[in-house]
Amino acid sequence: MADDITTLRRILASARTIAVVGLSAEWHRPSHFAAQYMQAKGYRVIPVNPRYESILGERCMARLEDITEPVDIVDVFRRTEDVLPIAESAVRKSQEYIFLDRLQYLVAGGRLSKTKGFLGDLFDMKPVISPAAEGAVKAGTVRDNNAQLTFAMEKLEKGLGQDTRPLIMIEYTDNRQWVENNVLGEIKCRYASAEIILQPLSLTSGAHMGPGTWGVAFLPSPL
């Protein structure tokens, strides 16, 4: 819990704009009280509610997708069953890329033939995959760690454009030091104001993809 509180404080300290989904114009509703409090603390509040023209002096947006400026936090005041579509809307623009070091682990998992795995490792071909709803899809192939990093930075630049405050997650397996020194270091230099999360790749994914695997996922701030 302590780590969660620390993370929350860091996010709130760096945040400037908060989208409030389901914000009510009625002063006695919890959403109105919370938004008014956040305004008083200096945050920019963007109401998201198709029922109103404006709330608390701010023009209402019908949907999250209608917001055209960077948003740091999405605060949701809706019924539990309504939250999933909102979350899906918020992450629709996210992208993720996983960089494998060896193909032999895909062969062991039955996702690649032995011949292709042998030839790929023989010529030091390192695949890049991107998780999708229909399963992992091949995003490219590179030759070494430096090429992996170049590939990742190109995808970040293309996906984020001029966005300076995105959410970026970096994942590692047995290569934390290399990822911290190279990937994290490069991303911090390029996106100094980004919210960056460094965490281990899931045990299941790491076991299936093997040592040396790492990944990067990112979500632009304009939601």
Gist of the model:
This protein is α/β, with parallel strands linked by helices. It has helices at residues 2-14, 30-40, 80-91, 104-108, 114-122, 145-160, 176-190, 203-209, and strands at residues 17-21, 44-48, 54-55, 58-59, 73-76, 95-99, 126-130, 137-142, 167-172, 195-200, 214-219. The chain folds into 2 domains: 2-91, 3-Layer(aba) Sandwich (Rossmann fold); 95-219, Hypothetical Protein Tm841, Chain: A,domain 3, CATH 3.30.1180.10.
Walk me through what this model shows:
The protein is an alpha/beta fold. The chain folds into two domains: 90 residues, Rossmann fold (3-Layer(aba) Sandwich); 125 residues, Hypothetical Protein Tm841, Chain: A,domain 3, CATH 3.30.1180.10. The protein has eight helices and eleven strands. The strands form three sheets. A six-stranded mixed beta sheet has the order 8-7-6-11-9-10, covered by helices on one side. Strand 7 and strand 8 form a beta hairpin. The longest helix has 16 residues.
CATH class group of the largest domain: Alpha Beta
Radius of gyration equals 21 Å
* Helix percentage: 25-40%
Q: How large is the count of helical segments?
A: 8
Described by strand count, sense and barrel closure, the largest sheet is: 6 strands, mixed
Q: Give the end-to-end Cα distance, rounded to a whole number of Å.
A: 28 Å
What's the number of domains? 2
What is the helix/strand order? HEHEEEEHEHHEEHEHEHE
- Stretches where pLDDT is under 50 for at least 5 consecutive residues are 105-123, 203-207
Shape descriptor: elongated
Mean pLDDT: 78
Strand order of the largest sheet: 8-7-6-11-9-10
